[in-house]
Specification:
By secondary structure, the protein is mostly helical. The protein has eight helices and three strands; from the N terminus they run H-H-H-H-H-H-H-E-E-H-E. It folds into two domains: about 210 residues, Alpha-lytic protease prodomain-like (Up-down Bundle), CATH 1.20.1510.10; about 80 residues, Alpha-Beta Plaits (2-Layer Sandwich), CATH 3.30.70.1350.
Length: about 300
């Protein structure tokens, strides 16, 4: 059973990388449409949206590359595998999102201060199309990210949602500019500025969990409780003194202290340790390795360190 885990992890990473490629293709097409429509329709909010979609391409490329590296098996230089590449890719994307928000905000302010024509009505149709495409892509990618437990894929999904939010803000701004008439031309630029704030907030929101994972934050409580429960089912295990679990990519690494009868032989203790490891990995294929510490328990006492 444990030998199937690497294959399963590779399949999950492959699914995530396929979605990243799909995101690259869609973002490239939408960026071209939005920038062209923005130029023809005198709409900076749409141009800014197109620039953000162009940056999305680099974000999806970072996710794709990170997942490809994370799928590489352990080697002499990386005995614990390359799973951290997945978290690093998520960090890169989060910084790209925040940098894009800052750059677009600066340009939005410039456009607000510069007199220009009101946006063309047809730009609203373009934005409706973009919102539908991006929201659909978000739902597909976030579902896969939750299913495979990938921080990078979920980050990529929220990147798509940020694009949908930007387009929605541009839609509102252009509508106000068209309805308001003369004097309301900068409304779409104000909408772009508002969208930049939302994008920057999303970038920060995406950065935090990726940083936590890169710094070996503990696995969720439900994962730890399940591992402890599985270990306690092994014959000979009297107590679990300590259990620490960290996440690397899509895999978990477990460090567990198991209490056994102090009178057992070394051979028997070693067998119990192997049984604990096998039981945990059989129940949770995401567990790549289990380090078991055997702690002696005197009759009527507790585990001795």
């Amino acid at each position: 059973m444990p030998t199937k885990a690497p294959t399963l992890i590779s399949q999950k990473l492959h699914s995530g990388s396929q979605l990243a490629v799909l995101g690259i293709v869609i973002n490239a097409a939408l960026a071209a449409v939005k920038i062209a429509a923005g130029i023809l329709g005198h709409c900076y909010a749409l141009i800014a949206d197109g620039i953000e979609s162009t940056l999305d391409i680099f974000g999806s490329l970072a996710i794709w590359f990170g997942l490809r590296v994370a799928a590489e098996p352990p080697d002499d230089n990386h005995p614990y595998g390359h799973g951290k590449a997945e978290a690093l890719a998520a960090i890169v994307v989060a910084f790209i999102v925040m940098a894009a928000a800052l750059g677009l905000a600066v340009q939005s302010i410039r456009e607000i201060l510069t007199p220009h024509h009101a946006p063309a009505p047809f730009t609203l149709l373009v934005l409706v199309f973009v919102i539908l495409v991006k929201e659909t892509l978000f739902r597909k990618v976030i579902h896969t990210g939750e299913e495979i437990g990938s921080t990078a894929v979920k980050t990529d999904a929220w990147h798509h949602r940020s694009d949908a939010i930007t387009s929605a803000a541009a839609f509102i701004g252009i509508s106000i500019a068209l309805i308001g008439g003369p004097g309301w031309e900068p409304a779409d630029d104000w909408a772009a500025l508002l969208a930049c704030g939302l994008i920057g907030f999303n970038g920060w929101r995406l950065l935090i969990p990726a940083l936590h994972e890169a710094m070996d934050m503990a696995a969720p409580v439900e994962v730890r409780d399940d591992v402890v429960k599985r270990a306690l089912t092994v014959p000979g295990v009297a107590d679990i003194e300590k259990c620490r679990i960290r996440k690397a990519g899509l895999e978990h690494y477990v460090d567990i202290h198991v209490g056994v009868d102090a009178e057992l032989t070394v051979r028997e203790g070693h067998r119990i340790a192997h049984d604990v490891k096998d039981a945990i990995r059989a129940a949770r294929p995401s567990v790549a390795d289990v380090l078991v510490h055997i702690e002696p328990i005197e009759p009527g006492g507790a585990a001795q360190n």
